[in-house]
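Exam revision sheet. Question 4 asks you to relate a sequence to its structure. Input first:
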Amino acid sequence: MSASEIHKTRVINELRGFIKKLLQDPAILEQSLLIARRHADLNERDMLAGIAREISDTTSVHIPDDPAEHSDADRLFLELLKEVISEEQALY
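Answer key, structure tokens:
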């Protein structure tokens, strides 16, 4: 197995675990969106760190505060939250 295949397998397994948590506790999604909305007016680095910290403090999902420690799944989830909030704000 190549390094690329190992990396892809790790990312897929991490995403599967994360999606499983969301299916077990669907409230995580709504909480995460509320948290993202509260941090939407900050610069990107502070916004992502604040969202990660508050999600970790209030849900069963743990995302490190330091962006350098974010896994691929962490980054994907935070970026998706940011996109959803940006699209919401564009509607108003």
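Marking note for examiners. The longest helix spans residues 3-24.
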